[in-house]
Specification:
The chain is an alpha+beta fold. It has two domains: about 1-40; about 40-100, Roll (Membrane-bound Lytic Murein Transglycosylase D, Chain A), CATH 3.10.350. The chain has helices at about 5-35, 50-55, 65-80, and strands at about 40-45, 90-95. A two-stranded antiparallel sheet has the order 1-2. InterPro entries: LysM, LysM_dom_sf. Pfam families: LysM. This is LysM domain-containing protein.
């Protein structure tokens, strides 16, 4: 086998290995995120609710978070770009679910 063919085979091997590792990493991260969300409480937004009012309602259950930190966490974990929420929207909040 000549040198050019060996380099081509080696390059293809690296590409295949990279693709396999990317797929494995993707599934690992998505499973981890889904698993983490199962330990947090989910709330349904009611008419008149805001992120600030939800943070206020749960301040006793999250004493280590400021209201702004609570809001930032909720926005990040729920993929919110703005502070706007709508009735019947489901949000994951940084409050642990109670074990039943």
């Amino acid at each position: 086998m000549n040198m050019k063919a060996k380099q081509k085979t080696r390059g293809l091997s690296f590409i295949i290995l990279f693709c396999i590792l990317s797929v494995v990493l993707f599934f690992t991260l998505t499973n981890t995120v889904a698993a983490d969300q199962t330990i947090y409480k989910e709330v349904t937004v009611k008419h008149g609710d805001s992120l600030w009012s939800i943070a206020t309602d749960y301040k006793d259950e999250t004493p280590r978070l400021t209201k702004q930190a609570f809001i930032d966490w909720v926005k990040h974990e729920n993929g919110l770009v703005r502070d706007q929420i709508v009735p019947d929207q489901k949000l994951i909040i940084p409050v642990k679910k109670e074990n039943k």
